[in-house]
Design brief:
alpha/beta, six-stranded parallel β-sheet, 11 helices, binds pyrrolysine
Length: 273
C-alpha cells in the first residue's frame, strides 16, 4: 500500500466542499451517500450524532503523517459524527479513547488502517472500504457495473478486493498488473476474474476501470469516454487524460467515509456475537 504524504492530505479538510461538489456533479452522490452505497447501507439507518469517534495518531514505523488524523476527524465531522483526535498517541491514545467511551476508534500504522466499533466489537478496514467506495462511484457514473466489462489496474490489496467485490456485484472483471504473478494469484482466488498480461493493451481496450495502481497511465492509452475510478496514489493523470475520460480520485475521503459508515453500521445490524 502506497504511503500518503503530508502533501497528499494537507488540504483535504478545507477542500471537502469542493470534493463533494465534484462527486455530486459526476456521480450524483454526496460523500456520505457514496459511503453508504459502498456498503449497501441505508443512510438513515445510522444516527451519526449518536456516535463519538476517536482518531488516534500512531507513531510506529515511519511515524505520523502531519494532518492525517485531523483529516480523518474532519471527514467524520463532515458526515455528522462527533469526532476528535486523541491528545495522546499510540497505546496511550487508544486508552484515552476507551476512557472517553468512544463508540468508534480509528488508527493507522504503515500497514493497517481500521475503524473499530467498540459496541459491536467489529472493525472496518480501509483497503476493503476504499475498493467498495470507488466501485460505488464507478457504478454511479456508469449507471451500473452489472454485466459490464471492468478492468482493475493493480493487483495489490485494494485492487484484489475490488476484483472480489466487482465480481460479487455481477461485473465481468479483468485484472492487470505489471507483476503478472500477482494478477494470476487474484484470478485464482476469485474464479471468473480474467487476467490481462499486458497492462497497456488492457487499458487501451477499457471503458470502465478501477485504477488501484501507483503507476502512471499515459493519456494516449486512455479511451475517449472511459470512466476511471481511481484510488491509486500517487495520482498522476494529466489534463489530456481528464479531457478524454471521467476520472474520480481523492487520496483519502472516499475510503475513510466508507469505512466510518461501515463501522457505524455494525451497531445497527446485530453484528454483535
Ligand atoms: C490510509 C492510507 C491510504 C493509502 N495509503 C495509506 C497510508 O498512507 N497509510 C499510512 C498511514 C500512517 C498514519 C500515521 C498517523 O498519522 O497516525 N501512522
Amino acid at each position: 500500500m502506497t504511503r500518503l504524504t503530508h502533501d497528499d492530505v494537507k488540504d483535504i479538510s478545507e477542500n471537502l466542499q469542493d470534493l463533494e461538489d465534484f462527486l455530486v456533479n459526476t456521480t450524483g452522490r454526496k460523500i456520505k451517500n457514496l459511503a453508504c452505497e459502498a456498503g449497501g447501507m441505508w443512510e438513515h439507518a445510522v444516527r451519526p450524532e449518536a456516535f463519538s469517534v476517536a482518531v488516534v495518531p500512531v507513531t510506529s514505523g515511519l511515524g505520523v503523517i502531519s494532518k492525517f488524523t485531523e483529516s480523518v476527524r474532519d471527514i467524520a465531522i463532515w458526515m455528522g459524527f462527533d469526532a476528535y483526535v486523541t491528545d495522546a498517541t499510540d497505546i496511550a491514545g487508544f486508552a484515552e479513547a476507551v476512557e472517553k467511551k468512544a463508540d468508534m476508534i480509528l488508527m493507522a500504522d504503515d500497514d493497517e488502517f481500521v475503524a473499530y466499533n467498540t459496541e459491536a466489537r467489529k472493525q472496518a478496514d480501509n483497503s476493503s472500504c476504499t475498493a467498495k467506495g470507488y466501485i460505488a462511484a464507478l457504478n454511479a457514473v456508469a449507471g451500473t457495473v452489472i454485466g459490464k466489462e471492468v478492468l482493475v489496474v493493480g493487483a495489490g490489496r485494494v485492487g484484489s478486493r475490488a476484483c472480489q467485490f466487482l465480481k460479487a456485484k455481477g461485473a465481468k472483471v479483468t485484472v492487470t498488473d505489471i507483476d503478472v504473478a500477482k494478477s494470476y494469484a487474484v484470478a485464482e482466488r476469485y474464479p471468473g476474474v480474467k487476467v490481462a498480461e499486458d497492462p497497456v493493451e488492457a487499458i487501451r481496450a477499457a471503458d470502465l476501470m478501477i485504477n488501484a495502481s501507483p503507476a502512471h497511465i499515459d493519456s494516449e492509452n486512455i479511451r475517449d469516454g472511459a470512466i476511471i475510478s481511481s484510488p491509486g496514489v500517487p495520482h498522476t493523470f494529466d489534463e489530456a487524460a481528464y479531457s478524454k475520460a471521467t476520472i474520480i480520485h481523492d487520496p483519502l475521503v472516499v475510503g475513510v467515509s466508507a469505512m466510518i459508515m461501515q463501522s457505524a453500521f455494525y451497531s445497527y445490524t446485530g453484528c454483535r456475537r
